[in-house]
Amino acid sequence: MSSPTFTYPTFVPKPAITSGNGYKCPSCGLELSIIEGTTTYSCDNNHSFDRAKEGYINLHLAQHKRSRNPGDSDDMIRSRQRFLNAGYYQDLAKAIIAHLGEQDGEQLVDKRLLDIGCGEGYYLSEIRKVHSELQLVGIDISKTAVRLAAKRKLDAQLAVDSAFNISLFDNSIDTAISVFSPINAPETSRVLKPGGTLIMVGPGEQHLSGLTAHIYDKTQPHKGNYASLDDSPEFTLKEQIEVSETICVKGTAIADLLRMTPYYWHCTPEQQAQLGTLEQLETPIHFTIRLYQNCAEALEILEALEILEAPDTLETPEILEAPEILATAETPEAPKE
Ligand SMILES: C[S@@+](CC[C@H](N)C(=O)[O-])C[C@H]1O[C@@H](n2cnc3c(N)ncnc32)[C@H](O)[C@@H]1O
Ligand SMILES: [Zn+2]
Questions:
Q1: What range defines the domain where residue 37 resides?
Q2: Residue 160 C-alpha to ligand 1 middle, in angstroms?
Q3: Is there a single domain that holds both residue 104 and residue 169?
Q4: What CA–CA distance (Å, rounded) separates 114 from 261?
Q5: Is residue 120 part of a domain?
Q6: From the CA of 71, how far away is ligand 1's center (Å)?
Q7: Ligand that comes closest to the CA of residue 184
Q8: Residue 309 sits in the same domain as residue 168
Q9: Same domain, yes or no, for 87 and 146?
Q10: Residue 114 Cβ contacting ligand 1 at under 6 Å
Q11: In degrees to the nearest 10, what's the CA dihedral of 324, 326, 328, 329?
């Protein structure tokens, strides 16, 4: 009888972590974890990023930068912080908070909210005052903005990062917000869970017309930041809410309001000086809040269906390896677990 042969078990390398609630390395896409006893985040490929003393991390790679200091200027950011801290846009913050977790009356415990283009963190800070249970994440391309946001000590994950290339994993965010900031539909949809909510805020028609009356002869219509979402297959508009009131801006807050907006660049020195003489400025503020739903899952189902209908492509490995997509496609009414 021949002696039994012993075969060593095949070595299966541990798969790389490609999901989770941490940061995704902007160089290679692996998970970044903190090296024990240090303030350095590193991936398995030894790309490393230091956490700043304020607690944020800079994941915006130099080779992806279009300018030395991308995003809003430091002056704009500091003016915006003073203006917002004075409470002039508090009703907008309240309206955003009122719509968090609105879909299906969901509970916010353990949910992750991402503020895209969070600036110096005013809205994250207002959300934190009401929702201690939420996991907050904020990104902005301006380092000054993120540093100021980190100084608010919000117990939030804050990173210098671009809305066009977010260093977070797929499906890792429950709700995203974007207040007057640039947005990229496919990238936002990727990090949001299927069915997750995107809350976009832009200017309504009357926004700051009391200020622009000092600068332009005719009221300038606002474009808003919705254009990239209007035709995007990733998002469905669910609801639109208008928030408006008239505010009375006092003293130096008038100059802050001017400096935090692009109107500052359109203003002549004479107009600036004239605005500087005002003791108070009455102006309507008008915000349009749009609630979108991420339809990434529906897109996957459609793609699966298309492939099912085309026999030539049936061997596409992603489809054969993803029976749950086919099952959902065949039984769209099936209750989810
Ligand atoms: C009008 S401010 C709004 C800031 C904040 N959401 C608020 O309402 O206070 C626009 C913000 O978008 C940031 N920003 C510009 N381009 C960006 C990009 N590609 N990715 C992330 N943030 C960006 C700017 O630095 C700025 O802080
Ligand atoms: Zn890496």
A1: 12-51
A2: 11
A3: yes
A4: 23
A5: yes
A6: 6
A7: 1
A8: no
A9: yes
A10: no
A11: 160
